[in-house]
Amino acid sequence: MIARGTKMAKVKAWEVADDFWERVEPLIPVRQRLSDQAYTRKAGGGRKPKSPRLVFEGIVYVLRTGCQWKALPAERFGSASAIHARFLEWEKAGVFEALWKAGLAEYDDLEGIAWRWQSIDGAMMKAPLAQASVGPNPTDRGKKWQQAAFAGGRSWRPVIARRDRGEPA
Predict the structure, then answer these.
(1) pLDDT digits (tens, 9 = 90+) for 104-131
(2) What burial class does residue 24 get, using C-beta atoms within 10 Å of its C-beta: 0-12 exposed, 13-18 middle, 19+ buried?
(3) Total Cβ atoms within 10 A of residue 104
């Protein structure tokens, strides 16, 4: 826990400070190999697993910047799909919920949370005036029901009455 009024070293928004990592690290599950599975890979083959701290920094990078998983800088974090796979593992294991609860508990100790009085507000609906400002759907512009009327005032009609192909002219 950080004492009030102490200054922290400047780090980039996605970099994990040492004191924060000390609080996160116990929440990260240890990866274990399945004992009932036979592994046929050669000893020393394949890439070494990424450190949990680097994976966590990659996850924080995505959350802070809002970028897509595939847009993670490969030179810093390596394979984006490996980071995403670990994110899914940790999410399933409840790491982020535990982190959220720990953060709430720490904030409650520092500032105090008024648990009796909480409110939330939000709305999810279509914008009422959006259609007027946007116009018709581009895929509907060529449909018959939206075409303008004939310039002469009346729609086109054939000169002769309708007949079937089998009837003589």
Answers:
(1) 888 888 888 777 777 777 777 766 655 5
(2) middle
(3) 12
- Which structure tokens are listed for 146? 């939206």
Exposure pattern of 121-144 as b/e (b: 16+ CB <10 Å)?
Answer: eeeeeeeeeeeeeeeeeeeeeeee
pLDDT at 2 over 60: no
Cβ–Cβ < 8 Å for 100, 24: no
Taking CA atoms, 43 is separated from 39, 47, 50, in Å, by 10, 11, 18
Torsion of CA 62, 76, 49, 24, to 10 degrees: -50
Amino acid at position 94, single letter? G
Calpha distance 9→7 (Å, rounded): 7
Let me know if 69 is exposed, middle or buried by CB neighbors in 10 A (0-12, 13-18, 19+): middle
**3-class state of residue 74 by DSSP:** helix
